[in-house]
């Protein structure tokens, strides 16, 4: 297959995304104000709660079977590798660039979590329909490609809301505690004058430990019974309970994840599949309706993405080295690691010989950061403007990076 044909097949989908994104940005400018803050919020809610679940369910239900599940078992582990490698490289970026503490979660999240759903749902069908595509019949390619992309979206949503959500939460809460300590009256009094002995005992760990020992000796001398000590098992139990109570299970079980679960059930249970899937199924109108609603997900989410990127044009005080670090991780280091992971899995026999499936696995390492990271920063009020700037640069350069890597991946799976 000619290199020029591969380049055309990979560039056209990216150009389509950029055109719709540019339209969303234009509709969001102040003088137009069709896609303002409130409009984006409402459209994003419709996409999050209606379009995306319908899209994920309809594609998984129509294509998943026990045989295909056996073939797709490696994809969850492939996505885990993107998060592990991205987190490690994000930590390296933090060590070299030294951003403010409240941005640590944002940097790690942008390096770890890629856009594993929406972009794949746009790129895969477009690549399948191109004349130079190496994936054979376009209808069959779109059918299975959408199933791969839907499964990727569902798994990515679980990892994003269970991992990145809590990373950003911990980072923002640590920053807020630091502000509280600096602004506390005790800290101010210690800066204005020397602290009293009681204040020293509260702040100095050596003094506080000595006061504690003296108090215990005094209680023993008076014959007072000490409180029972907490066992290690009770401490671990309390810690685990605290972690699970702070995890937002509502976000982890996002509508797209619920849609994926229903799609799994319908696709894998023969009785339900016979009722809903296929032209001869008695209730196929329900499946057709879900497909119709799901078709609105891709244009809606792309328009919202364009409107959100407009905020990045206003700029912020984020260091340029942080932006360059995230770009290097997402568009250089991760794709190279992805090639090693996927090719290693193929050589070990963990991935079956399917060019389209291999292309999707490779592409999961080369996509820009997940747009929902911006939603997470809004929830905690930490790094919203910085996130918009990072997203602006990442998605602006995606037109070049994704085209180059997609061309190379297509060549890689064709030979």
UniProtKB/TrEMBL annotation:
Where is the segment annotated Disordered? 181-205
Q: Name one GO biological process term.
A: auxin-activated signaling pathway
Where is this protein primarily located?
Answer: endoplasmic reticulum
Tell me which Pfam families the record gives: Mem_trans (PF03547)
Q: Where in the cell is it found?
A: Endoplasmic reticulum membrane
What are its GO cellular component terms? endoplasmic reticulum membrane
Q: TM spans, by residue?
A: 6-29, 41-60, 72-94, 106-127, 147-168, 252-270, 290-310, 322-341, 361-380, 392-413
* Keywords assigned: Auxin signaling pathway, Endoplasmic reticulum, Membrane, Transmembrane, Transmembrane helix, Transport
How does the record classify its membrane topology? Multi-pass membrane protein
Q: Which segments show compositional bias classed as Basic and acidic residues?
A: 181-191
Q: Which domain of life is it from?
A: Eukaryota
Function, in words? Involved in cellular auxin homeostasis by regulating auxin metabolism. Regulates intracellular auxin accumulation at the endoplasmic reticulum and thus auxin availability for nuclear auxin signaling.
User: What family does the entry list?
Assistant: Belongs to the auxin efflux carrier (TC 2.A.69.2) family.
Full protein name: Protein PIN-LIKES 3-like isoform X1
Q: What is the lineage of its organism?
A: Eukaryota, Viridiplantae, Streptophyta, Embryophyta, Tracheophyta
């Amino acid at each position: 297959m000619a290199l020029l044909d591969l380049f055309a097949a990979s560039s056209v989908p990216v150009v389509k995304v950029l055109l719709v994104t540019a339209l969303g940005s234009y509709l969001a400018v102040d003088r137009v104000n069709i896609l303002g803050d409130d409009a984006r919020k409402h459209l994003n809610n419709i996409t999050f709660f209606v379009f995306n679940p319908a899209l994920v369910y309809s594609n998984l239900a129509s294509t998943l079977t026990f045989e295909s599940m056996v073939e797709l078992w490696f994809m969850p582990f492939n996505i885990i590798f993107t998060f592990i490698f991205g987190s490690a490289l994000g930590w390296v970026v933090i060590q070299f660039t030294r951003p403010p503490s409240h941005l640590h979660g944002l940097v790690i999240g942008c390096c770890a979590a890629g856009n594993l759903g929406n972009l794949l749902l746009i790129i895969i069908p477009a690549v399948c329909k191109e004349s130079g595509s190496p994936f054979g019949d376009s209808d069959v390619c779109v059918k299975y490609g959408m199933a791969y992309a839907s499964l990727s979206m569902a798994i990515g949503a679980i990892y994003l809301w269970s991992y990145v959500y809590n990373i950003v939460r911990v980072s923002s809460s640590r920053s807020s505690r630091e502000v509280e300590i600096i602004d506390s009256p005790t800290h101010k009094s210690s800066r204005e004058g020397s602290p009293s002995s009681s204040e020293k005992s509260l702040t100095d760990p050596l003094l506080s430990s000595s006061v504690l020992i003296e108090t215990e000796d005094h209680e023993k001398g008076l014959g007072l019974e000490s409180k029972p000590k907490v066992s290690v098992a009770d401490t671990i139990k309390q810690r685990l309970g605290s972690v699970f109570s702070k995890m937002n299970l509502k976000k982890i079980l996002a509508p797209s994840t619920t849609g994926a679960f229903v799609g799994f059930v319908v696709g894998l249970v023969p009785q339900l599949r016979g009722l809903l899937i296929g032209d001869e199924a008695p209730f196929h109108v329900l499946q057709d309706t879900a497909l119709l609603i799901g078709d609105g997900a891709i244009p809606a989410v792309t328009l919202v993405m364009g409107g959100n990127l407009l905020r990045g044009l206003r700029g912020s005080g984020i260091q340029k080295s942080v932006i360059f670090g995230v770009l290097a991780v997402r568009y250089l280091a991760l794709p190279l690691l992805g090639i090693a992971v996927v090719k290693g899995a193929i050589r070990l026999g963990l991935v079956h010989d399917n060019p389209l499936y291999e292309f999707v696995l490779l592409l999961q390492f080369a996509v820009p950061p997940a747009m929902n990271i911006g939603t997470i920063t809004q929830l905690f009020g930490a790094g919203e403007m910085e996130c918009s700037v990072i997203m602006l640069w990442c998605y602006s350069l995606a037109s070049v990076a994704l085209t180059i890597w997609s061309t190379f991946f297509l060549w890689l799976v064709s030979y």
